[in-house]
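ASSEMBLY PREDICTION REQUEST
Request ID: AP-0331
Submitted by: J.K., bench scientist
Number of chains: two
Total residues: 587
Priority: normal
Notes: Please return the full assembly, not individual chains.
Input sequences:
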Amino acid sequence: MKNLTTRPALVPCTLALAAALVAACGGGSGSRSVIQNKGSDTLVNVAQAWAEEYAALRPGTAVAVTGGGSGTGIAAMINGTVDIANSSRKMKDSEIELARGNGNEPIEFVVGYDALAVYLHPDNPMDEVSLEQLAALYGEGGDVDTWSQYGVEVPGCSSDEIVRVSRQNNSGTYVYFREAVLGERRDFRLGSRDMHGSKDVVDLVENTPCAIGYSGFAYATDHVKMPCVRKGEDGDCVSPSVDSAIDGSYPIARPLFMYTAGQPEGAIREYIDWVLSDEGQCIIYEKGYAPRTDVDCS
Amino acid sequence: MFEATARNHRNRKVEGLFRLLFLWMTCMLILPVALILAVLIVRGGPAISWEFLFTQPMNNMTAGGILPALVGTVWLVVVALIASVPVGVAAALYLSEYAPDNRLTRAINLAIINLAGVPSIVHALFGLGAFVIFFRFGTSILAASLTLAVMTLPVVIVATRESLQTVPLAFREACWNMGATRWQTIRKIVLPNSISGILTGVILEVSRTSGETAPIMFTGAAFFLPFLPQGVLDQTMAMSLHLFVISTQVPDVPEHMPFGVALVLISMVLAMNGISIAFRVYLRGRKKW
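STATUS: Completed
Returned structure:
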């Protein structure tokens, strides 16, 4: 019978130990100020690069970066769970009202510009595309379904059917594409492949000869083709690049935003100022986005 | 006297056929596991090094290591255990040792089974609403771990209750007859004899929590953090989310990195399960009945 009375000492001991550990470590990181930064998938890699660089620069401030999409960041701003929301679209008036209602006045900062590139499989012979052609493909009521309607024959795409690659509807890229290409009131047509990240779009197009997609220029790889984009039938066809986004000649380039809850102060102010400084702007430039002003990053 | 008839022969043939069929199905079951492990080891193996395990990510998470994610996962699991094990064991003790078999008890049992079936993304939204926003824990280890704890509570309760019920009733009766109270019986007889089953439940919970992504995405896990968490109110990186992030969100990640992260994650889970099995065998060996 002896071993029947052995005490299960292990469990309480482990628990006590762990509890003591937590108690000893306290609630959060004491003297360090932590900035919560959440939102746009387009901006998330730049936000991460900023945070990584800033950590080396100011060890006293830590920036916690989370993605999820512009909508996620804006929702968090409305709920008051972030310090800085990243967005690749402007906040809507209704969203600003909601945030105000919760006591968070959103303050807007333009932190750079992004050219929205159209992506094609490298075997696709198409070299230029107009906004009107894109609208007829992506927009509700559009009548383009096959590559031959664009007058091209794509090697490796025997079905001739165009695989439309788009984004999930809380993505800022999705909202901007709709505004800039389809027009405010026109909806997307059903039947597209809606991807959950900027990189996913490029990955899919890279491996699908029949596909066309749109995503930030910063996500371009060597294995996809980016046709130049024309506005109107007789407009200049401009290739997506950081330079054409800066000078405004590329027709689908958009501002990228950071929103703070109320006028930023202290560590948040310092961080925003650093992001907007030449140093911060050169980081966004290196990541393939356009800085908000001309900076010399050589 | 017992001549084999034609029917006997046929039966034997059918028997052999089914045996083969079932064997084949079993092999099909093992095949994916073996393939996954083989692919991970071949493609992720070269990524594993001390630097990979113990340094911060660098260059947009395309270089360097996974230390913050590794430490973060340990934090999440430990805090989730602290929250769920006492509650789960207490609930199982009540259900197994005290509760009369009435409607309320049956309703509670049903609720536990249903809780186990709730999709993890629903738990995630519950955690966001309850812990992050309502209780104002913010996106933190505390909120994420409590969400994980709620999600894995049924695992602990069911495993504990089952192991409590393997203790023969005669043991309890003998103890009661000596004049011991219920609690004395539980402490001296029931718990010591069911500890192996309880620990198995706990370790199963560990392996499940360490792999979950959805419940921590909204409640406490970050895409990137430049520091290691210092306390339960800090946000954290986690292995599972890190794997998702570097395989779908970050451009130019060297191919061996996601495989390396997956290999470390699966090794953690397999090691946990291994410990659980070893513990079980050890404790069962000490049983005297």
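REVIEWER COMMENTS: Residues 1-26 of chain A have pLDDT under 50 and may be disordered.
SIGN-OFF: pending second reviewer
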